[in-house]
Design brief:
Shape: extended
Strand order of the largest sheet: 1-2-3-4-5-6-7-8-9-10-11-12-13
Strand content: 5-15%
Radius of gyration: 33 Å
Helix content: 40-55%
Number of strands: 13
């Protein structure tokens, strides 16, 4: 093996301890190494910290055994002395509080992890360990992504960390999901981060935390002034307290003043009913709404919630993807979505339909089971394929109304004729150009038939103006010729 040019290497977690010495000898020759995956021992750490290009470290434990104190001390030395770490993955190695405290000592001395990732998922970290980490992360405010999900963190430890994160300008992604001991007190600490002018947090994962109704209000108040968050996940666990209708109303009220959030996940919040979903209408119809994806899996949907959601989405111009469980939705519920996407009762209602939505539950990827679902799938594809919602609206109108009634526009004489012509020209695609031209001529004919004298008079006036313009030009040229002859 050409060791000086190796960029990625791993040390098997089932290797014997004495093998680490031989492995360390080889590591010293890996001058171009960027990625290391495997065990962390004192023998391996020594050469690792001297490698100039090492940036990604993925630590493994020995089989099912948690990382021991000796290995944690080696990890401390690695983190304290390696200068180019960007991604440090310590997920599920069993650090616990003691290991977290040793890691915190290393992080306090570390000058790397700039714009980097620290993954501490599933380590059994409690409040003591998190308080130690909070202190070190306060002095190392360069981290971009921090994953603390599925630990043993409660309000006490989380508040300590949240205090330092509220002043962190580098952090963009934060997950504290599945720390089920966090309550509304912890949610209040989260809201303080979101309200901080220094915070630049973009993605926040609060899955399996008891948000409850009060938590919804706290988050709503924070998001009403937050200008950075793009993704918010509030997936509720089976034994967690759901945000409920009142909490969703408060959240929606705050979001109605937010113009940045693009992804919202409310899955498994089973206490949400049609009342809560209808409260989203104010948010969806707000001019500032920027939401693109809404996920509502594992909620008892049915026709009532389908109709409520379709009503709330009316005239929304940002949501592109809606994901939810189809169970319980009958033809009545699907018809509500069809009306949302394309209400063919009149050209005006078609125009006022939703032309942004391109994915609705499983309609995009599964075989439609009814004619209504087939129609929905067709209009969703049209929304996606058209370059703008305006073009999608025009295409739908032309599909349902081959001969548009121009009579209501005749009262404005010929003022609307150029607009009508332009409307058809902008709608025409290469596939249906001939048909669109026929419809354009039909519309123009209705104007000519309704205003024959005005059309004739307008044409006569046009010709008269052209003749006068030509005569004026001739006179100008004759005058110029006479002037030149005199010279």
């Amino acid at each position: 093996m050409n060791l000086p040019h190796v960029t990625s290497i791993s040390f098997d977690s089932y290797s014997k301890r004495e093998d680490a010495n031989y492995f360390a000898l080889g590591l010293r020759q890996c001058e171009a190494l960027e990625d290391y995956s495997g065990l962390v021992t004192a023998e391996i750490v020594a050469p690792l910290v001297s490698l100039p290009w090492l940036s990604n470290i993925y630590i493994n434990k020995r089989g099912v055994l948690a990382i021991n104190r000796e290995e944690c001390m080696a990890l401390r030395e690695l983190v304290a002395n390696a200068t180019g770490i960007i991604h440090l993955d310590l997920s599920r190695v069993g650090l616990g509080n003691d290991g977290s405290e040793l890691l915190a000592e290393g992080l306090a001395c570390n000058s790397s992890l700039t714009d980097g990732v620290l993954d501490l998922r599933g380590n059994g970290i409690g409040d003591t360990g998190l308080q130690a980490l909070a202190s070190s992360l306060a002095s190392n405010a360069k981290l971009r992504e921090l994953n603390l999900c599925n630990n043993n963190i409660s309000d006490t430890g989380w508040e300590a960390l949240a205090e330092s994160l509220a002043h962190n300008r580098a952090l963009r992604v934060l997950s504290i999901a599945a720390n089920t001991a966090i309550t509304k007190i912890g949610v209040r600490a989260i809201s303080r981060i979101l309200q901080s002018r220094k915070s630049r947090l973009e993605d926040l994962w609060l899955d399996r935390i008891s948000i409850c109704e009060e938590g919804g209000k706290l988050l709503g108040d924070a998001l009403s002034i937050n200008t950075s968050l793009l993704t918010l996940s509030l997936w509720c666990g089976e034994n967690d307290v759901s945000i409920g209708d009142d909490g969703l109303k408060a959240l929606a009220l705050g979001l109605s003043r937010n113009s940045h959030l693009k992804v919202l996940n409310l899955s498994e919040n089973t206490a949400i009913t049609s009342v809560g979903l209808r409260s989203l209408k104010q948010y969806f119809q707000s001019p500032s709404c920027a939401l693109e994806t809404l996920t509502l899996f594992a909620i008892n949907f049915g026709d009532e919630l389908a109709c409520a959601l379709a009503e709330a989405l009316g005239q929304n111009k940002s949501v592109k993807s809606m994901r939810f469980d189809e169970r319980g939705i009958t033809t009545k519920g699907w018809k509500a979505f069809l009306k949302l996407i394309c209400d063919s009762s009149s050209p005006n209602n078609v125009y006022l339909s939703n032309h942004t939505l391109s994915m609705l539950s499983g309609c995009r990827y599964t075989q439609p089971s009814s004619e209504v679902q087939k129609s929905i799938l067709g209009w969703l594809k049209m929304n996606e394929e058209c370059q703008t919602p305006n073009l999608a609206a025009k295409a739908k109108i032309m599909h349902f109304f081959p001969d548009l009634d121009m009579v209501p526009l005749i009262q404005w004489n010929l003022k609307f004729l150029p607009l009508v012509k332009s409307w058809f020209e902008n709608t025409t695609s290469s596939n249906d150009e001939f048909e669109a031209n026929i419809r354009e001529l039909s519309a123009v004919y209705q104007f000519v038939r309704g205003l024959p004298l005005l059309v004739a008079n307008d044409s006569q006036h046009y010709l008269t103006r052209q003749v006068e313009r030509i005569r004026a030009k001739i006179s100008e040229l004759e005058e110029e010729e006479r002037r030149l002859m005199q010279v």
